[in-house]
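for the recovery benchmark. tokens below, seq after
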């Protein structure tokens, strides 16, 4: 019997020799979730000019406490002219601060009579003024290579007038579902059959991790067909992911097919759930390789395995360090459990309280109970041969994209 391997050894085997994929240029409005290949420097100051933080009056701070005539009106988007001495400018939020003015007083603080405005006493220089370059100075680093372009980053780029960016090509993934007992939703179930819950779940997770699922295939319990479909998948994908078929049953053909075609790097892990997991490589006609990840068929094992292995693999292919490891935090266990020789990844919900972070474990941790994954915020990592009681500190891996 093969010795069970720790997750650290599995990750080392999975990520060995992985290099980021190539680049492509895409329009900014199509770049959401993509990963930058190159650093981007600011082309403009942000904001590009001193502007008002509110509706009010722009003036010289030295004119505080005086009645001042309104010499101009400055709306956002309109140019300002230099401020006449001894006057103020009616200004609106975002309006350009005129030369000569050094502060803005909000409109609720003044008294107006006709075209004359009485200013309050003691106005500080710079009050209510958003200075040019307060956010970003021209030439500074705007975004680093490897940054994933989510909402704020997209806004940052758009604020520079950028319309196209260079991003990593999405990893292409082939998703294979093995087993004669697995059928697609919409098909009438025969005795002994199950609907395929892994396929839509893993497709969504992979897309969240930055991948593109290019192939979804059902693989029968047949060795020759398994070899054929693995070969076809490797020809179109950077990563081939299978569910089921990697255990030791007579109808589990994936491991044998992988060994006949390419290389098995790792099989059977000392983790729960997800012990029957296979990692390897499949050759292509051009001499390159597709990575192979064989997940267990139980849906919770597939869910946990996707977070532990597919996410960091996509991160390496995308050159995105934020995907390389799940963020970890310490929490206080609100459950009792014990472990045997395998490391346990328990589905937990997190509560943030004045006393700290509390981890509530779902009562049924069986690998077939997918409902527990819907509300799970994290995986509580329980080392082998541990006795955990309520109040024990536990390390949790936060399930974030």
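predicted aa per position
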């Amino acid at each position: 019997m093969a010795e069970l391997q720790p997750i650290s050894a599995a990750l080392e085997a999975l990520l060995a020799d992985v290099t980021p994929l190539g680049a492509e240029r895409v329009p900014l409005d199509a770049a959401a979730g993509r990963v930058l290949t190159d650093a981007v420097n600011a082309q403009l100051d942000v904001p590009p000019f001193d502007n008002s933080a509110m509706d009010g009056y722009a003036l010289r701070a030295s004119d505080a406490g005086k009645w001042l005539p309104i010499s101009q009106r400055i709306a956002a988007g309109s140019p300002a002219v230099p401020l006449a001495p001894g006057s103020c400018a009616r200004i609106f939020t975002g309006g350009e601060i005129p030369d000569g003015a050094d502060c803005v007083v909000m409109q609720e603080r003044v008294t107006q009579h006709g075209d004359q405005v009485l200013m309050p006493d003691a106005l500080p220089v710079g009050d209510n003024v958003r200075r040019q370059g307060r956010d970003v100075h021209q030439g500074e680093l705007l975004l680093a290579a490897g940054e994933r372009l989510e909402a704020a980053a997209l806004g940052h780029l758009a604020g520079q007038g950028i319309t196209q960016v260079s991003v990593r090509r999405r990893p292409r993934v082939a998703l294979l579902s093995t087993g004669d007992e697995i059928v697609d939703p919409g098909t009438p179930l025969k005795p002994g059959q199950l609907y395929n819950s892994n396929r839509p779940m893993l497709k969504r997770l992979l897309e969240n991790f930055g991948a593109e699922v290019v192939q979804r295939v059902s693989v029968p319990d047949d060795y020759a067909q398994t070899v054929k479909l693995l070969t076809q998948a490797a020809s179109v994908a950077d990563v081939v992911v299978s569910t089921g078929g990697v255990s030791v049953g007579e109808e589990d053909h994936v491991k044998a097919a992988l060994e006949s075609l390419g290389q098995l790097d790792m099989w059977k892990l000392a983790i729960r759930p997800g012990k029957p997991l296979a990692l390897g490589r499949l050759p292509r006609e051009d001499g390159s390789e597709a990575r192979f990840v064989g997940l267990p068929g139980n849906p919770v094992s597939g869910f946990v395995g996707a977070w532990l292995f597919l996410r960091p693999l996509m991160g390496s292919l995308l050159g995105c360090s934020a995907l390389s490891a799940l963020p970890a935090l310490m929490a206080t266990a609100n459950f009792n459990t014990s472990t045997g020789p395998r490391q346990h990844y328990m589905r937990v919900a997190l509560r943030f309280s004045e006393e700290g972070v509390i981890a509530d474990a779902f009562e049924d941790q069986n690998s077939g109970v997918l409902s527990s994954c819907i509300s799970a915020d994290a995986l509580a990592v329980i080392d082998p041969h541990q006795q955990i009681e309520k109040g024990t500190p536990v390390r949790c891996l936060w399930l974030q994209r």
